[in-house]
Sequence to fold (640 residues):
Amino acid sequence: MLSTDVSNRLPEGRRTWLRLAGSLWFAAVIMVLLLVAMAFATVYESSHGTDAVQSAFYKTWWFETLLALLALNVTAAVVVRYPFNRRQVGFVITHASIVLIVLGAWISDRFGVAGQLALVEGETTSGFNVEMDAVTLVNRSTGGRAEVVLTPSLLESLASPTPTSLPTLALSDVRVEVQRFLADAVGRESVVDDAPYPQTAVELAATGELGDKNAWLFAGKTAEVDGLAVSFRMAADAAELERLLAEVPTATPTRIVNAEWSGGAAEIPLQQCTEKPAALGDSGFTLQVLRYLPHATVGTGNKMVNASDEPLNPAVEVEVTGPAGSERRVAFARFPDFRSMHGAADADNVKITFVESGGGAQTPIAILGAPDGALHVRFTPRTGQPVVQRLAIGTPVESPWPGRRFVIRRRFEHARVSRTFEPVGGEAGHGVPVLRVKVASAKSSAELWLEKQRPLPLTIDGAAHELAFGERSIPLGFNVTLNRFTVGYYPGENRPRSFESQVTITDPVNGRTQGRVISMNHPTEYGGFSFFQSSYRLDGKRAMSVLSVSRDPGQPVVFTGYITLLLGMIVVLVVRMGDRKRQTGEHRSNGVALRLPEVKAEPRPSPRRAALAGTSARRTGVLSHSRPEPAAAGEDTPGT
Fold:
């Protein structure tokens, strides 16, 4: 009997390949390879984490190839049996369901997204971040946005000396090309004279007993040189220059300690918070000044000491006390952002600044630029009148402080700070990830370093832009506002039991506003996205709710595959049970047909009857000791 499957209708070569693709041993090989890969992935994940195993195993080309081969095997196993009979319906459904599940997983991997958004009470967001690096360019004037995704394999290529491809992004007539990636780099700053916009800066050096110390001064900024605050200002005209040179300090200084916290602020006179701790409103914090240092400088062992009684670098050492304990800090009057510039963070979210005005010039040393390009310096000691001198590049000038001279070494008219990065030598983990990019437009072009999680403001052809390297941001298409976040604790313990976020979703498309509650076991869905309450973080004294956000377009396909797979297995089970019942019935029918007829035993005759029967038989010739002769051909045998 010839087979009617579709493979017999194909040429011999294609028929062989089709049956090979749908064979059982090919399926066994694929399944073994998948099991081995997943076993190694499980071990790898335990030591490297989920993100690493995704990049090393589940999102690689070879793992996706194995899944594609599995789908090919299942599809070929169905095709070679076409056309199908009624007994093969369950087989077709189960195999088609497996293909459907693999297809849904592929759709989720290619088109699904998953990330997080973090909000404090009252904050609103319209997007969330995913754990995928990207370079983003935003035009602040028009709101235009462009980005390029940097996959792990692409970053690995950019980290090599000879990258195979250079990703680019374009926004209007601005083009950004990514040239190099350093996963662990350390930066060094220098001032160069190639800014596309005018910006005057001078390099001031101080010579003294401790050697030479120098710093760059940008117009309109204040810097520290050898423990002294130095300002640099360009006068708009001759009248303003004359007024600045003749400026006389007031007699009595005013010293104020400013405190800012979540929900309030206070200005406390120095004398008031020196005598006793001052309460910071109803925040539960107190502040007390331990020391006032007119000329603060760093002494032995990196400890802050007072060098003199002249107000050259005023500072206060304060103690902030709160529910979590006490913390000591130093606040400088000339450098209010000193802590943030050096990476310090206030765990209790209380910011302290110190202001000293009057009783001296704004800064002990002021560099003043004239409209004609000339430079002047004004020294203002604590006692005596200000001293004004003319400055010339390369010519030192004496100061009112013994043993100190100052000199202008260089002057740039288009100054900018250039940061260069180099790979960290030795042990890794001490630097930051950076990208080397080239930004080009119709009128200008520049190469610069882009540090991760530090957006870089740029002015390109007169328009404000922002270039950033960090996690990719996915727009939601609607706004999410956190109204209230609550944490539930176990009775009598400080261990969290549950988290709950009360949010408001505002859709600008239809103008609808909806209130939703998201808790640990009760997610919410809107606009194709699912929101889950995953955790929370502390932002100072405020709790920050962390929501997991996902969009999985392949989920309905996978669930449909699961349902049809179960249905197909039920059909296969019913068909097999029917076959077994039918076979059992056939065996029973065959047993009745082959049964021999029952032979009944005749009663034994008596001796007298036996003798009479024997006499009768001899008379008729039926009984004889001699074998009867066979009948001749064509002759009937007796009794026929």
Remarks:
- The chain has eleven helices and 33 strands.
- The radius of gyration is 45 Å.
- Confidence is low (pLDDT under 50) at residues 340-345, 615-640.
- Residues 6-111+558-579 form one domain.
